Amino acid sequence: MRQSDIPSVYALVAEMEWNIEISYLEFVFNIDPTGLVVVVKDDGELIGHCGFLAHSDTIGCFGLNIIKEKYQHMGIGKQMFREAMKVMGDRNIGMNSLSNRITFYTPFGWTIKSYTFHHNQGPVNPEFIAVVPEGDFEVVSARDIKFDDVIAYDSEIHTVPRSVYISYWARHQLANTYVALKSGRVVGYGVVRPSDVGYKMYPLYADDPKIAKALFCRLALHIPAGQVLSFIQPIENDQANEFVVGNKLTSRFVMTRLYNKWNIPLDIKRVYSISSSEYGII
Ligand SMILES: CC(C)(COP(=O)(O)OP(=O)(O)OC[C@H]1O[C@@H](n2cnc3c(N)ncnc32)[C@H](O)[C@@H]1OP(=O)(O)O)[C@@H](O)C(=O)NCCC(=O)NCCS
């Protein structure tokens, strides 16, 4: 894939209503374009894209996976997938499959199911955020603290340090990032960012549900009335589910994280909203 392909990939993703900003595609490309694959017709039309992003020498994440509707069911998707597999090398590759499509990936080796999550969307319920928990912690803007502490906390939960990735996402000029501190130590953080459709609230990681809700309430204040919130909740986190129920969010689709070599166990109780279902580990 070349930099000049980005607008066509964006058009393809937008056509599918996947709500992935062009700036996110540029960002993934700028981190490392070597794993990104496109399908281009002889006349130059771009009709497919998928790829993987290396998180380390041993771990990578597969992301997106799309063939223009007019060209589906002609064998192109399978061929594109095989090409992408060649560039993945020997890494353990995580990918998110629609939960009702996981058997497609079995013959290719993605047999290890890690966790399942819902892509939820809907307006924030003002009554839900009216009650803000208090405790022996404070919630501050990430601009007021050393960001290295957030990166360290993120690395602990995400399992693979990703300072470039998370710095871009959480310190973007449009992002609002809040951090929960207990005696000066990071015990949670969350990001809210405008996207093509509504606002994305992820990641949201916290050591306990009270801290998570306090962060949720603070972040939600940045979402103007009438706008929708996107919130990607792992089903194993019951407390995160209460946020979904409390705001009456609608599940748009359900995905399962698969690995092809080994599982990467996560402390999912601290994960309330997944940082990105595309190219991130959680
Ligand atoms: C999934 C997709 C990339 C497959 O491309 P394709 O060119 O239509 O696939 P092929 O013609 O090579 O393969 C035919 C079959 O294998 C399935 N398949 C092929 N590649 C696939 C892939 N990477 N992931 C899932 N299923 C795939 C196709 O869905 C199709 O199954 P069906 O006939 O029972 O519907 C394409 O259908 C698409 O863009 N769908 C919409 C986006 C989407 O759902 N992406 C997957 C998210 S997990």
Automatic annotation (TrEMBL):
<dbReference type="Pfam" id="PF18014">
    <property type="entry name" value="Acetyltransf_18"/>
</dbReference>
<dbReference type="InterPro" id="IPR041496">
    <property type="entry name" value="YitH/HolE_GNAT"/>
</dbReference>
<dbReference type="InterPro" id="IPR016181">
    <property type="entry name" value="Acyl_CoA_acyltransferase"/>
</dbReference>
<feature type="domain" description="N-acetyltransferase">
    <location>
        <begin position="1"/>
        <end position="138"/>
    </location>
</feature>
<dbReference type="InterPro" id="IPR000182">
    <property type="entry name" value="GNAT_dom"/>
</dbReference>
<dbReference type="GO" id="GO:0016747">
    <property type="term" value="F:acyltransferase activity, transferring groups other than amino-acyl groups"/>
</dbReference>
<dbReference type="Pfam" id="PF13508">
    <property type="entry name" value="Acetyltransf_7"/>
</dbReference>
<dbReference type="InterPro" id="IPR052729">
    <property type="entry name" value="Acyl/Acetyltrans_Enzymes"/>
</dbReference>
<protein>
    <recommendedName>
        <fullName>N-acetyltransferase domain-containing protein</fullName>
    </recommendedName>
</protein>
